[in-house]
Design goal:
Distance between the termini: 23 Å
Number of helices: 2
Strand content: 35-45%
Order of helices and strands: EEEEEEEHEHEEEEEEEEEEEEEEEE
Largest sheet: 8 strands, antiparallel
CATH topology of the domain at 2-94 and 168-317: Beta-galactosidase, Chain A, domain 5
Radius of gyration: 23 Å
CATH class of the domain at 2-94 and 168-317: Mainly Beta
CATH architecture of the domain at 2-94 and 168-317: Distorted Sandwich
Strand order of the largest sheet: 6-7-11-12-19-16-15-14
Number of strands: 24
Shape: elongated
Structural class: mainly beta
């Protein structure tokens, strides 16, 4: 899914990738996102990595997706107000794939005469392209099982695809809902519903590959009352917020009187705001940028279900209004930027993901957007 706020050079741009069927040159990146705005990339693609933690996804401990395992795009919706999609990466954690023999070893005659030797512990892959497609295609070859599909390079040969379960990586859910909210101040919203099948605590990490020049200039953690007023230090509030600020290093040549960065006016920046994250934090989960395996922004929690809900807001320093957050008594999130005010409702729905409802008051009345199987 690719969404833009408009066609200008400073438009907000969000890409959500959850590969439906594996082809060649595939990587461990089911539910990967890319984000840009105000004329530059903030979360970039291009890792081409078989290591899950080197891609823009949520990781569970050191568990890995299998690069040749499929994901499934399970929902999509576009209106003038917003565009959202939802991807399910569960198969990529729980299965791995290979060919029954050597590459291009078998033919259809081998299948019909029972000469295909399936390795012990593996099973014939009877799934089809349509089993992982968002929109099913009626053409016959989209309903042909992967095991029998022709090899892409060797005429007369078949893929002979087989698969094996990975119970050590069993997940209860691995859904990411990602989208773009349009308006004078557009922003991305990413919701992650991940948990392991064992019901135990794990380390869940939100990973994002950032361009090499980006600097994490500020990390703020604060607590809000329902009405959005800050909670005094050492007091308990309704919601804990973590706000990260990214800027390009080229603009960070001056410091203020307190030794902090003092970027010039009109410098592009990006706020990554964790409006919800459930679980404990320690030194291994703190927000940081690591350079091993690429320049990766990470923030984690230790728990059973992290419930990550993240706003991605590109802005111009000294010129753009900043988001003001509040929560209604029903738990809905209110995002106010200048005169733009959107109320976002979250609701867990039957397939393990979080459905959303957006409401914005405009000049022509209220605009609304619902996303999820429970929508009216």
């Amino acid at each position: 899914m690719i969404a833009r706020s408009d066609w200008g050079k400073d438009a907000a741009y969000l890409q959500h990738h959850c590969r439906g069927a594996s082809g060649g040159h595939v990587f461990a990146d089911r539910n990967n996102i890319v984000f840009a705005g105000q004329g530059r990339l903030w979360i970039q693609n291009g890792s081409h990595s078989y290591e899950t933690h080197e891609n823009n996804v949520v990781t569970i401990d050191d568990w890995s997706q299998k690069n040749n395992a499929p994901g499934r795009m399970i929902d999509y919706k576009r209106t003038k107000l917003a565009t959202f999609s939802c991807g399910d990466a569960k198969p990529a954690y729980e299965w791995e794939y290979r060919t029954a023999g050597g590459w291009g070893q078998y033919t259809m005659d081998d299948v019909e005469e029972g000469r295909v030797e399936i390795p012990e512990g593996w099973e014939r892959d009877t799934a089809t392209f349509n089993d992982y497609a968002y929109e099913r295609d009626p053409q016959p070859h989209f309903n042909q099982e992967y095991f029998l599909r022709p090899d892409w390079l060797k005429p007369g040969r078949i893929q002979a695809s087989v698969r094996k379960a990975r119970p050590e990586n069993a997940v209860k859910k691995a859904c990411r809902t990602a989208g773009l909210v349009r308006g004078r101040y557009p922003y991305g919203l990413v919701i992650d519903d991940y948990s392991a099948s064992d019901g135990k605590e794990h380390r869940f990490t939100w990973n994002a590959r950032v361009p090499t020049d980006l600097v994490l200039t500020d990390v703020k953690t604060y607590t809000l009352n329902t009405d959005g007023t800050p909670v005094p230090e050492n007091k308990t509030g309704d919601r804990a917020i973590t706000e990260l600020t990214l800027m390009g290093a080229g603009a960070l040549t001056k410091l203020n009187q307190y030794g902090g960065y003092n970027p010039p006016r009109d410098t592009p920046g990006c706020k990554i705001i964790f409006v919800q994250k459930e679980g404990k934090q320690d030194q291994t989960t703190r927000p940081r940028i690591e350079v091993e395996g690429g320049r990766m922004l990470r923030l984690g929690v230790i728990g059973e279900d992290p419930k990550f809900k993240v706003i991605l807001f590109p802005y111009v320093h000294g010129r753009s209004n900043q988001p003001k957050l509040a929560f209604t008594k029903d738990g809905d999130l209110v995002v106010e930027i200048g005169n733009q005010k959107v109320e976002i409702g979250f609701k867990e729905v039957g397939d393990g993901r979080t459905g959303i409802t957006l409401r914005r008051q405009g000049d022509s009345g209220e605009e609304s957007f619902s996303f999820g199987p429970s929508e009216p």
